[in-house]
């Protein structure tokens, strides 16, 4: 039978310790290290229970419990209930939240090079993406983020490549000419769709379904899994696998929280993340396959357009943004052999 332990949220304990006169993170966590209380790491994800990040989080939780004989555990918080993606990073950076599995998009606010993941066709496929992230480039990016944001990247999973929904078949770049395509409030995405010949329209995600339903916009880009869960198939008849952007997602922990753990606890966290990483990657593949099958049964036509026709249009985007994001890093990623 598993030993019943008192539960202590590590970020909460650290915050209380810091509120004391001159308390350090080491002293704040000393009691949790030595008195047998269970350390519970609060982990935020933007998705609901059962989604791909939940699969990753649960694998991490179960392995951490196994490695520490239940001395450490994880409480998963769903649907951004602890804050939006940027806020989650900020909270981890000030030791107010233990962990998060979220999109890498907001990381560009701290390290400019992370904005390169918004560039079109930076990565050819998942093999290219993970060769980059699992190698020295991924390590360099993670270290820069740790230094700038005080958040430690433990591993990389994904939101995956984006597909584009519409009410017409998209077989080449000619087919998006003049279409009002919803984009995020992101200048790189706006410039990309302008280069494709479309009419990019920034819009909050909460307005997208209604916007598509009412014809305010003609289409949008997102993962197949999100197209399914958001029921976009109810208002769009086609999905094109343009796959112009790949969105990595870090398994991350507050640097201060991590450094407040004992060496054995740190090793357990690292090993649990290493265990969860391939499970999370496979979860996204599985969810994408399930989504593709589901939306096709609902009547959606999935096409694989001529991606080269889109690629011929993107050099102006690189000419504008590469100097701002980091030409050397972009060249290393685009030309990475895998």
Automatic annotation (TrEMBL):
Q: Which UniProt keywords apply?
A: Signal
Q: Which InterPro entries match?
A: DctP_fam, TRAP_DctP, TRAP_DctP_sf
Official protein name in the record: TRAP transporter substrate-binding protein
Q: Does the keyword Mitochondrion apply?
A: no
* Assigned GO CC terms: outer membrane-bounded periplasmic space
- Which organism was this protein described from? Domibacillus aminovorans
At the top level of its lineage, which domain of life is listed?
A: Bacteria
An example GO biological process term is: transmembrane transport
Using the record, list the residue span of the signal peptide; answer none if the entry has no such feature. 1-28
Q: Tell me yes or no: is tRNA processing among this UniProt entry's keywords.
A: no
Q: Which GO terms describe its molecular function?
A: carbohydrate binding
């Amino acid at each position: 039978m598993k030993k019943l332990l008192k539960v202590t949220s590590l970020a909460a304990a650290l915050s209380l310790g810091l509120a004391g006169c001159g308390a350090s993170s080491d002293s704040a966590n000393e009691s949790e290290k030595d008195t047998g209380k269970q350390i519970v790491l609060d982990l935020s994800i933007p998705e609901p229970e059962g989604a791909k990040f939940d699969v990753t989080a649960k694998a991490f939780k179960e392995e951490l419990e196994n490695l520490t004989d239940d001395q450490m555990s994880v409480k998963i918080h769903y649907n951004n209930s602890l804050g939006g993606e940027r806020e989650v990073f900020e909270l981890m950076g000030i030791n107010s939240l233990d962990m998060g599995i979220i999109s890498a998009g907001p990381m560009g606010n701290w390290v400019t090079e992370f904005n390169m993941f918004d560039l079109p066709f930076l990565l050819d496929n998942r093999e290219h993406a993970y060769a980059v992230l699992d190698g020295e480039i991924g390590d360099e990016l993670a270290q820069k983020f740790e230094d700038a944001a005080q958040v430690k990247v433990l591993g990389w999973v994904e939101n995956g490549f984006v597909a584009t929904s519409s009410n017409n078949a998209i077989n080449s770049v000619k087919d998006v000419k003049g279409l009002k395509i919803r984009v995020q409030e992101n200048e790189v995405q706006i410039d990309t769709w302008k280069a494709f010949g479309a009419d990019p329209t920034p819009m909050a995600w909460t307005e997208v379904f209604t916007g598509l339903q009412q014809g305010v916009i003609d289409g949008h880009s997102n993962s197949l899994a999100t197209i399914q869960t958001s029921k976009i198939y109810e208002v769009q008849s086609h999905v094109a696998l343009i796959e112009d952007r790949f969105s990595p997602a870090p398994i991350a922990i507050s640097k201060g929280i991590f450094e407040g753990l004992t060496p054995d606890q740190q090793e357990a966290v690292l090993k649990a993340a290493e265990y969860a990483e391939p499970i999370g990657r496979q979860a996204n593949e599985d969810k994408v396959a399930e989504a593709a099958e589901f939306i096709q049964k609902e009547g959606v036509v999935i096409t694989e357009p001529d991606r080269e026709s889109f690629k011929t249009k993107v050099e102006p985007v690189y000419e504008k943004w590469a100097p701002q994001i980091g030409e050397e890093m972009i060249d290393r990623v685009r030309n990475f052999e895998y």
